[in-house]
Amino acid sequence: MEITDKTIEYVAALAKLELTQEEKEKAKTDLGSIIGYMATMNELDTEGIKPMSHVFPIHNVFREDVVENGPDRDALLENAPAKKDGCFMVPKTVE
Amino acid sequence: MKTYETVIGLEVHVELATKTKIFCGCTTLFGGEPNTHCCPVCTGMPGTLPVLNGKVVEFAIAAGLATGCEINQNCKFDRKNYFYPDLPKAYQVSQLYLPICHDGGIEIETSAGKKVVGIHEIHMEEDAGKLIHDPWEDCTLVDYNRCGVPLIEIVSDPDMRSAEEVIAYLEKLKLILQYLGVSDCKMQEGSLRADINLSVREMGAKEFGTRTEMKNMNSFKAIARAIEGERKRQIEVLEYGKVITQETRRWDDNKDTSFAMRSKEDAQDYRYFPEPDLVPIVISDEWLLEIENRQPELRDEKMLRYEKEYDIPAYDAGIITGSKHLADLFEETVALCGRPKEVSNWLMVETMRLLKEEEKEPEDITFSAEHLAGLIKLIGDNKINRTVAKEVFEKIFKDNIDPVKYVEEKGLSMVSDEGVLKATIEKIIAENPASVNDYRSGKEKALGFLVGQTMKEMKGKADPGAINKILKELLD
Amino acid sequence: MDITKLSALELGKKIKEKEISAAEAVSLQIDRIKEKDSEYNCYISVLEERALSEAKEVQKRIDGGELADAPLAGVPIAVKDNICTKGIKTTCGSKILYNFIPPYNATVVEKLKAQGAVIIGKTNMDEFAMGSTTETSYFGITKNPRNTEHVPGGSSGGSAAAVAADEAFYALGSDTGGSIRQPSAFCGVTGIKPTYGTVSRYGLVAYASSLDQIGPIGKNVADCAAALDIISGHDKKDSTSVPTESYGYLKVLGEDIKGMKIGIPKGYLGSGLSEEIKRSILAAAKELEKQGASIEEFDLEAVEYAIPAYYVIASAEASSNLSRYDGIKYGFRTEDFEGLQEVYKKTRSEGFGNEVKRRMMIGAFVLSSGYYDAYYNKALRVKALIKEGFDRAFDKYDIILGPTAPATAPRIGESLSDPLQMYLGDIYTVSVNLTGLPAISLPCGTDKMGLPIGLQLIGKHFGERDILKAAYLFEQTRKEVVL
Hints:
Chain A: GO terms for molecular function: asparaginyl-tRNA synthase (glutamine-hydrolyzing) activity; ATP binding; glutaminyl-tRNA synthase (glutamine-hydrolyzing) activity; transferase activity. Chain A: It holds the Pfam family GatC. Chain A: It comes from Anaerocolumna xylanovorans DSM 12503. Chain A: One of its GO terms (biological process) is translation. Chain C: Heterotrimer of A, B and C subunits. The structure holds 3 protein chains of 3 kinds. Chain A is α+β, with helices and mostly antiparallel strands. Chain A has helices at about 5-15, 20-40, 75; strands at about 60-65, 85, 85-90. Chain A has a domain at about 5-45: Orthogonal Bundle (Histone, subunit A). Chain A contains 3 helices and 3 strands. In chain A, strand 2 and strand 3 (about 85-90) form a beta hairpin. Chain A is flat. Chain B has 3 domains: about 5-285, no CATH class; about 295-410, no CATH class; about 420-475, Arc Repressor Mutant, subunit A, CATH 1.10.10.410. In chain B, helix 7 (about 325-335) crosses helix 8 (about 340-355) and helix 13 runs antiparallel to helix 14 (about 445-455). By secondary structure, chain C is an alpha/beta fold. Chains in contact: A-B, A-C, B-C. At the A-C interface, helix 1, helix 2 and strand 3 of A face helix 9, helix 10, helix 11, helix 12 and helix 13 of C.
């Protein structure tokens, strides 16, 4: 399958990745051959077959509506690259 | 200028009144220090997995049944993928392909008459966290306390034509959800938020115009103004011969106008796919019936019952049932002290007056049924008179004090010792010969003055009926 | 005697019989790691002090009689570094989690601790379990202890190599498309991928949620069965965990397999399979026939489409699962950024390796608007057909037998340049993940270079006992041959 620059840029943007020109070229080749190979699935007639997400017919796995967790903020923030006032810190989100 | 018709559809997000979040055992309590109502699951830590809160499904079904929806007896969750700091997993667990409820509607009544607003679907999903701007560092702080709070999103058909209809729809929806106990619908806490999809078209046109979306509106007033403002803006654009851009706009209630939000850098491609970490939900006929049988009395039924059972005027029944909280308070109080008309009076008159004074809603009432019932009993037992009762009620309204204790501590109960009362009245008669003469010469009004004087002397703690009686005995 | 050569169960017995203490076992294991790991690089973290103090605690419990029924109490175990360990760095072999310390244990880790296991280290792996060679780790490549010019396989290459090098008595790996079985085959050890839902995934850092499953890697079948006894079981924290009646594995070993029906898919012996491997596999089948099983070749339908379907589904789920690594909550954040979008893009571009990026882009593509039906939904339909094929096969057979991989371990540096070629090496393993079936890989010979060959036995859903029984008997016959 022919993968265009536009497609690569589009999927890179969706995946939040920045690619160098060289990486883009490599991605074009690799994705082209891999996605082309994936398309061989079309040889198989799947007319009338329902898409199967779960292999087992398990359903209705529920939790009781009972509070189980207490506050544990320090543990949650311990790995944060930047934090302030008990919050995760990020560059501002609105202009 | 041409005449235009406004076409409005709503997406209403409602936070459910479960004790815990949709996929973990964290509390859903509003407020709290940032990131203290969180755990590894709702903050999207690596390796953690969701487990569905069964109550969420029951609430969603209840909401669907009460709004005339069909229930999808086989439904499942999907992932909606996008990056934003308030979404720690970078996907929101929601329902795209098989929402739990669909094809319902609710009847609204406005000055234009009655009509049904269609409900396209109701689906379950998780709420996102909160972003706080930090002016000191000029950055954003992320608090995940609300992250994972269960939501239902109620998507209407584009059936509304005016702000009035939108408000009527929202009021009705809010009452249904409150009566079901599915949500407290506190708009100021974000438990009920609406996205407004609005377009205009020439009157009589078949096709819809291009719509814009205004997200996360959380007050009826702002919604009404936003609809009016956006309607005008779109008509103006069209009148200038331009076209409407399909976009998300932010309504600025202070500036009374909407702004186009900076379009996201990337295309909106949410790449929905079935959530592999959660198994499908199968709703059996039995389960559905069980929930249906458990549905509580909704507002319309309740109103009729109040008129019939308690002999309350339709207008009053309408006001009291206009708030679930008020109706609950009414019924609990009546259960404690009987006298439904008296209870209704306190709610309709004094309570409403004080709410208005403080610019509050019936939902904000903090006093208990026990204390209102206590007050009504004190009046019934002739322990306090109405003037004192009003004073005590204000304290109940404000601080939810116990009226029995309060009256005792402040010594407000009426003097029931007839000897003391008689002595006081005799003193008043002696001190006011002119009025006594007036009364005896047929001026009935003078009696009122004497009653008042006695009451004053007794510091208000007397039964005006008893004073009247003794005065008349002594004077006649 | 070199105790590091013992099997896990043998060591467990010696600890029970007070021939050796748990702490001594840890010390000797650490010595072995210190001696060998600079060469093989099986471990990302070695937990010397922590393991010693844990061993002492476990010893107290053993001495107190508490762990009488725990055959592996006090035995050190290595855990793949995508399984969360509280207070211990869990990196997934990635720069993006190079410093991540989970504040919680995976359910399997809790279960291990309850049975007195001592975690001695966290093993190297292909980044986020994406790879077949353990060459994509941020923490360097792992070498195959059987021949250090070759890869150990992947993605659980660190775990398999550690067991092969006696740097671990047994280990945990994870298997999404063959990541336990293939490195077990390449390193000449035994590994089992349980039925989906048998072992809790809670705390396993997700690659492809619908396919991932944790399983043991051991020096022999019995060690794997004993380890699976510990880690299996229903878990309320994992909605896809399946409660069953068929736990209890060690106890069935030694039972005969008379009358057991074994099928060999013709396609599994066709072109692409090395002759040497084919010979070993058929010889193994003969051995099982001698033990009373019946052997038959048959056609397994649709299975040639397992690889494309697998890579569509796995990449799609991965692209979503790995979006959370954004430099905000944990792990690596780029140092130099302006604005939120740069935090995202630079963090992810600098933090992920090429193979992970490739799969995230493929995943984004197959889910993107306009391609969802043609790729993702199509793959789910193909999966349904593959499952039907296996269902029909298991109507006739108790076990499906075949090779684990079409070739023995490739040389280091030969695989990564052509990713599609590398994916094709998963031909015999991925359908098991798509269908949720259990499968074991165990040694059945070596090629002319002395590189191990793996035999794969695939069981029915929750048919772990069948494949373990057969594997155990086969292992016994091989021992006789070797002796």
